[in-house]
Amino acid sequence: MQKIERIFKGMIKDSEIQKRATEAVYQRGCRYFKNKAVKKMKLHKDGHYTAEVWGNSIYSIAVHLTDQDTVHSCSCSCPAYDLYDGICKHIVAVLKEMQKLQFMDQLQNMGMHQESKGKLFSLFAEAVQSNEVADMEPLHLIPECRCTQQYNEMTVWLEFKIGRTRQYVMRNVADFVKSMLYEEEIVFGKELTLRPHRIKFDALSQELWDLLRMAYEDEKSLSPYSAASGISKTFDQKRFKLSPSNLVKFFTIMEEHAFSFGLNEFAPTRIKIEESRPQIRLMVNDLAAGGQLSMGQDELVNLDKNFRYLLYNHTIIHKVDEEFSRYIKPLIQCFKEDKHIKIDKKYMPDFFSNVMPEIEKIVNVKVAPSFLNRFEILPLSADIYLDYAGSGIGAKILFSYGDVTFNPAIGSQEISTMNRKILIRDQLVEGQILRFFEQFEFRAEQELYVQKEEEQCYNFLTQALPELTELADIYYSESLKKKPIQRLEKVTAGVSVNQDNLLEVSLNHEGFNLNELLDIISSYRLKKRYHRLKDGTFIPLEDDALAGVADFVENTGLQAGKAEFIRMPLAKAAYIDSLAKEEHGFRLERNQAFKKLVTDLKDPMDADVEVPESLKKILRDYQKVGFRWLATLAKYGLGGILADDMGLGKTLQVIAFLLSQRDDAKSPSLVVAPTSLMYNWLDEIEHFAPELKAIVLAGSKSERREKLATIQGADLVITTYNMLKKDIEEYEKLDFCYCFLDEAQHIKNPGTQNAKAVKRLKTHGYFALTGTPIENTLTELWSIFDFLMPGYLLSHKEFKNRFEIPIIRDQDKHALRDLNRHITPFILRRMKKDVLKELPDKVEGKMINEMTTQQAKVYLGYFMQAKQEFETGLAQSGFNNNRMKILALLTRLRQICCHPSLFLEDYKGGSGKLEMLEEVVHDAVDGGHRLLIFSQFTSMLAMIGAKLKKAGIVYEYLDGHTPALERIERVKAFNSGTQPVFLISLKAGGTGLNLTGADMVIHYDPWWNPAVEDQATDRAYRLGQKKNVQVFKFITKDTIEEKIFALQQKKKALIDQMIQPGDNFLSKLTETEIRELFNTK
């Protein structure tokens, strides 16, 4: 008990709050608190509190407490705070919120368990609620509506009775509203004393109370002077004046309830609101001076300014639709002036023609029989005759009523029928028809309406004519051919493959000859809205279907005045086929040879080409598709880009193709590759197709010339871009069977010597291999295609204007789609994710590099020196005593393979292996791959890092000096980040790391023990890896690395069984095997 007393001791007391507020205000404030109306409570540094209370508006409250946690001062922005003594309900709510916060703080300070806190707070909340009084029987507000009409203005007042079982007249509506808002007691009689906090209205009364409250608050906010002075335009003792908007709100509230209503001097009666049209009856009486329109005994009064609520015969209020209110408004306004509207005799025809049809849309009209003897109402029949008027259009319009026909272009006054009755014309429809001709600026000339301007004629025929057909019958002259607008129906193109292996393409249309058709397409290309034939017929050109025809004409080169067909190369076949299939309004008729050509290009897997027997079990399914695709293109004399992702075996697919063509080839094929990849080609051929004779054209200029003279007996010649540039004059004298550009992005710039040189070669088929046919600009793609099929993608200038500039600068989707149609048949690109199921989880391979000239000299010198030291050591102390010395000699040779600068400070001759790494990394990063690069030598990693930094490639780094905590952070950064490369010391990063963010591993310098390399590889190839992992070992040609790798492969089984990660492969080699490493043969 003492604990509970301590809790309440530091809180604002309820008695203090009640002392500052009336009972009604206190109860109202408690309800605000209970309903969580207190927002943004804040304790400031000086100890005072501020908050907002959300009621009818948002009010700001400030409270200052004394040191004893009693209220020192407070304020609120609400109107009641300034008008009355004591605190308002909003301050009460804030004090109760403060009380709650103090309560919770006390619990916290006393260290009470959460369950105990919950129980105590529930008791606190119940204590607040217990001060509120239970609801009583619903209270009823009963309205009486009175309207006063003076000088065409309607004033509407409401008076109220209030009560539960007995009703009392509300003698002052404003006082009632004010007392309710400020929760003051209201006495109506002995049996009705209202305490606002205990009031509960019935549903209808609640809506009426809300209407009163909002009107009161609106007036206070809009007219502060009226509120302060007590003068109100809305409240007058027991009357509440309804504004136009509040009138509509009141009628909406009362739509399902009867209520007391009185107009002017009429006593109030019970009335209801119905959503319907009043059944009004109008009469047109015959007078000597004309006619008279009257409503008879009916009376219709509009109660709102929009004429939506109409009092009919003081018995019902009709809520009418918008159409009725629009037409009834002028009638009611006229009848307010006089119960009978007189119409002069001369206006009676106009009344019957124009006014009465409008009135009859909403009410019944009874016409005096005597009028029928003088006027005749007949249906209108309109005929329009169209003909050419010079280069423009003329229209003859005839309006007919029975036997009477007249031409409005000549003019018409009062028209009589055959029996001399005055004709009542349908001037509404006549006017509609004539307005079409006015809208398109036709002018009356004798009997015709004429428009001579071509543009307006086209607008009239396409925009007005379709709507005019709903109002009139249209007749065309013979010269108009009954159809002045002729839409271009489906165009038919024919395409076939002729005996000379060329495409023959034609274009035709049933309604037009070729020259007319080409003129129409020319107008479309100029973005004209229409094309006009010589006979005057308009051809609309605002039809997307014409785009396909226009593209077809442009891309086939069809020209007016030429033959009915043109010949073009087979390369266009797939483009023409896709163009016709994608475009509407265009049909292509194909012969059988053309269909087979397109099918072969689009579905190479079904091509009738046998995979070489020796490779059937080696090639994966997607590689067989690539092989057949190459063979199909070669069969038709076409070229293409094999753009598979890195590691998918582009080289193997080409080898399979060359093997299949070997027997038919009359000359060798040529591969042009980067220097770093030249010997990889030779290695792959020796491995997969040793029967192919391949020659590498390298060495000095004289050596290369000597080899060139002997290539006729070879199947394949391999050279580099650099060598080709130097020897191009010799190469262009030769004929090759096929030419393959490996890493064809080397010719992406058409102005370079690389690009110029390869385009001087003469072969029977041209192919490109690259994972990145486009790196920066579309010109790169054009340059490769200019090698494959010169002219296929136009000249460079035409390509830029038609494709590159619209696509890159203007984001032209049509140009992009058209370019894709051109290139798709000639690019085969598969990503690893597309052939994931066919790939092993880990793909391992080696990449062979050649040393630079200076590097080779350094290596040879050190190799001869090492060999001599090896022989001397063996002679002096034997093999086993020299193992450490041998290891040191071999390590030095391995460092030269990596880069001679690892121990030669002034060396400037470069490294073939580092150059190959640069190319591989660039291609891999461009292809979206992420790499781990391992090296035993940290100084080599530093050199690689410098190259990456210079190229703008971000990387992570880890070696034996990296602190343990920092190792973890760098691994996390790589796995979750975007850095494409991680450089790792083999010993430092070979174990304990999880680097599944990578999908490519490069062993820059092979380690003696393959198990150590495998452990390093497993940093990427491990649980959690979702991609296939490629592993490459970089091997320098004709060096100790090549011999060590060969020994490792030879003794692979022994290594797997006997050598553990901590062992040294070198220690397992015999003296004979070590001698073989130093053998120069």
Automatic annotation (TrEMBL):
PANTHER family: SNF2/RAD54 HELICASE FAMILY. Signal peptide: none annotated. The keyword Oxidoreductase does not apply. The keyword DNA repair does not apply. Residues 59-99 form the SWIM-type domain. Keywords: ATP-binding, Helicase, Hydrolase, Metal-binding, Nucleotide-binding, Zinc, Zinc-finger. InterPro entries: Helicase_ATP-bd, Helicase_C-like, Helicase_SWF/SNF/SWI_bac, P-loop_NTPase, SNF2-like_sf, SNF2/RAD54-like_C, SNF2_N, Znf_SWIM. Residues 916-1078 form the Helicase C-terminal domain. SUPFAM superfamilies: P-loop containing nucleoside triphosphate hydrolases. CDD domains: DEXQc_arch_SWI2_SNF2, SF2_C_SNF. Residues 631-791 form the Helicase ATP-binding domain. One of its GO terms (molecular function) is helicase activity. Gene3D superfamilies: P-loop containing nucleotide triphosphate hydrolases, Tandem AAA-ATPase domain. This is Superfamily II DNA or RNA helicase, SNF2 family.
